Amino acid sequence: MDLYHIPLVILLLTLPLAKPVRGETDPPDVSALNVMFRSLNSPSQLNGWKSSGGDPCGDDWKGITCSGSSVTRIELSGLGLSGTLGYQLSSMTSVTYFDMSKNNLNGDVPYQLPPNADHIDLGGNTFSGGIPFSISQMSDLTYLNLAHNQLHGQLTDTFGSLHRLSLLDLSYNQFSGNLPQSCGSLSDLKNLLLQNNQFSGSIGVLAHLSLEELNIQNNQFTGWIPNKLKSIHNLKIDGNSWSSSPAPSGMSKAGDISSSTADDGNQNSGMKAAAIVVTVIAVLVLALLLMALVKRRSSASSHYIVDQYSQNRSSTPLVDNELKGSSSSSIDLKSTEEASLGLAPAPTDAHKSVSDNEFANKFHSRRSTDRPPLTIYSSSDLQAATRFFNSSSLLGEGSIGRVYKATVSDGKVLAVKKIETLNLAGTYDFMEIVSDISKLHHPNMSELLGYCSESGCKCLVYEYQWNGSLHGFLHLSDEYSKPLTWDTRVRIALGTARAVEYLHEVCSPSVIHKNIKSANILLDAELNPRLSDSGLSVFFEDTSENLGPGYNAPECTKPSAYTLKSDVYSFGVVMLELLTGRKPFDSSKPRIEQSLVRWAAPQLHDIDALAGMVDPALRGLYPPKSLSRFADVIALCIQSEPAFRPAMSEVVQVLVRCIQRTSINKRMGGDLTNSHSTRSEDSDGYY
């Protein structure tokens, strides 16, 4: 080769190196955004987003900013998004900025938040429940805005490790109770906005904070104002129940301190009074000139008030009344002022003394009257939908038949339980069973949608649950799965308990499930539990081993021995699975540990031993008090004597208190920094 061609060869060899590289997004980020997109109801305004796969960093998904192959910012404010945020956000470890404010998002505040975020803005939505426990682990957090939602309950000691937090906005919610002691640990906090809630007690815990703005208006605080807080430039304290008695040392009476809002109101009132006097005099002197002058002053005064108010509330987002959909019929000066500024009114107290049973009855009544009739499927329809019940569509197999994934002609995905043998007791026939099951309706139960009753083909058609079974999440982990968090486990236990309570105490006559196990607790797209196989106990009349080893109560030596309290025992074993991550019976363990109940029961009241029993996958991230109470429930449920086991309504009540310990409300997942994720569709784990 002559020297003339050498540069050309070098150029050709280096061209591939010079070609731009389009890196693919990290798989955990893609999976989390896929789940989020589906949970947001796949909105069209999210350009580029996909429900499965895709490359957010390479394909320029709306609102997504990346660094290399990692998603670092999610900014989707004010897009009219609805639904929830899914459950997989904690796998997005590179996200530092997360803004979903001013949308129509509902449900609980996501328990799975990006664990290393320093900016979280969820203000201006309709989130309910409380502040998730995972917030306490987010030590990088500097900005947290949860204002203008429907959050309620007491704050727990969530803030002890948030030493970098600069702004905390919880205004315009329904929080109640005393401020937790951990608020005093917010050493970098500058802006604290708590107005328009139902907080009570003293604010002494705030005395040593170096605040620049404090708004605690319109709560139920009592006592006095710490002297150090008097120096805050932007201090608003009106609308509370401050003490009028002499203040102790280091404190001041609220009446001796004028908040900036009160000053503004006095100034505005004085200005209006002066304007009226001037106007009256001017009318007497020059009526015609005054009309134009009043018009101009009125306009200028109006703009002044709005601008002044906006400046005073610069850290609080403005939320449109139409977005919040207020239905309040009461009118007062404050709400009138806010309405004129386009702000949502303070939410009214939505709490009512409605028991869980009453809620279940109301939900049952609504679903019973509104739900469509069962769909009757032909065997040919179901054969086509399941590829002739092909093994590639098989989801799981149990004692009465197999469950297949079915895609029907309209594209809807269903789960079809094909009954292999009909071992029916007494005068029961298949259609009687279908009729009985069709009467069962509860938000935590798998819903029967249809059936097939042809010769040689008896099938029950249910909702398809995308995340398979609890058994799969706990015991069949793979490279796509991550452990369930503590809050998620408690929420799954509570939802399942409510379903069993419905069967035992709401249905008349009571229904014994006889098949409560983790494989029959299905998880929907947001990890809400759905108890399956309800109403199928007639199939188990001839066997005492339908549950599998480890679940059967000691008295269940024969089918006729099953009672409501036997269900309670089986539920307690499921709770043990949630606590320990172990199977009910595991022959691979040392002999003394093979039976989960025998191994765990003696340790449930030993604090030190209990900590050693917890699923190692949780990495110690759980509230100790909630764990202890959870263990107490288990100990009651798995007692050997049926008479000593509690009713399911009692179990529900205690589990609700477990959830209150971690600042979450009713259902939907927990959050810790190591979360769970969806598995592939082929490992859904139906049984």
Account of the protein in words:
The chain starts with 5 loop residues before the first helix and ends in a 26-residue tail after the last helix. Residues 14-22, 261-272, 294-369 and 663-687 have low confidence and may be disordered. It has three domains: 27-259, Leucine-rich repeat, LRR (right-handed beta-alpha superhelix) (Alpha-Beta Horseshoe); 263-340, no CATH class; 356-683, Transferase(Phosphotransferase), domain 1. α7 (356-370) crosses α11, α11 (486-506) runs antiparallel to α16 (648-661) and α12 runs antiparallel to α15. A nine-stranded mixed β-sheet has the order 1-2-4-6-7-9-11-13-16. The protein has 687 residues and is of the alpha/beta class. The longest helix is centred in the middle third of the chain and has 26 residues, at 260-285. Helices cover 30% and strands 13% of the residues.
